[in-house]
Amino acid sequence: MYTLLSGLYKYMFQRDEYCILILGLDNAGKTTFLEQTKTRFNKNYKGMSLSKITTTVGLNIGTIDVGKTRLMFWDLGGQEELQSLWDKYYAESHGVIYVIDSTDEERLSESKRAFEKMITSEALEGVPILVLANKQDVETCLSIPDIKTAFSDCINKIGKRDCLTQACSALTGKGVNEGIEWMVKCVVRNIHRPPRKKDITWQPSTDARHFFHPVLCSSCDGRECCTMEDSCLSPCSSQMELLSI
Ligand SMILES: Nc1nc2c(ncn2[C@@H]2O[C@H](COP(=O)(O)OP(=O)(O)OP(=O)(O)O)[C@@H](O)[C@H]2O)c(=O)[nH]1
Ligand SMILES: [Mg+2]
């Protein structure tokens, strides 16, 4: 009887939760993408005006449910001095969304270097990567073939993992649903990184912003602190010295 009831409870109130990192250079459109995603996938979510988004110092957190699957996004700041913090999150993540600004040809090689460094990290081995060629609403932007050519010497470093390049506009929402649905499929089938079991009777905030949270907080495992700001201020602020900006 206990087994039956606990099975029923799990079926009704538990989700498989996957952590997805959103990475890319500053100004690529990561936070805009996160807001657009939350608006599309969370009923009743009143997102902030996309034009009011400013550069991220630390990280933003967002959660969406796609069927029985929950994705928790960690949107990290992309400025050069913040990129050294990205790898603190690799071991905990199930997927990466790498955002490229398709209108910024000048910084494409800088973006490629950051991408290359990220994909060659052992802590991310086998993790699916969705590359978003963002800002495709701008007429003069680089096309997908242009971007693939610029990133071509990364191909043999990608290794055995799912990888997709998707045209996207975080501003208009083009390509957002397709990208998210692809990511859900990939993380679910990746048996090497099983999900966390998450009780959905506890509903995380969908729009938390954390400005000084450079590493996962050891006392709350980087989860509660990212969604319940008050309970986390002291553990997280103890990590502040690591963020040298
Ligand atoms: N035209 C256009 N502009 C976009 C798009 N996505 C983002 N932007 C703009 O690009 C700028 C930077 O967007 P953010 O979302 O703050 O970029 P970010 O990658 O989070 O930057 P950091 O937080 O500094 O790492 C903002 O002015 C956005 O409005 C897009 O799809 N199309
Ligand atoms: Mg941002």
From TrEMBL:
Its main location: Golgi. Keywords: Acetylation, Golgi apparatus, GTP-binding, Magnesium, Metal-binding, Nucleotide-binding. GTP binds at residues 24-31, 78, 134-137. One of its GO terms (biological process) is protein localization to Golgi apparatus. GO terms for molecular function: GTP binding; GTPase activity; metal ion binding. Trans-Golgi-associated GTPase that regulates protein sorting. Controls the targeting of ARL1 and its effector to the trans-Golgi. Required for the lipidation of chylomicrons in the intestine and required for VLDL lipidation in the liver. This is ADP-ribosylation factor-related protein 1. The gene is ARFRP1.
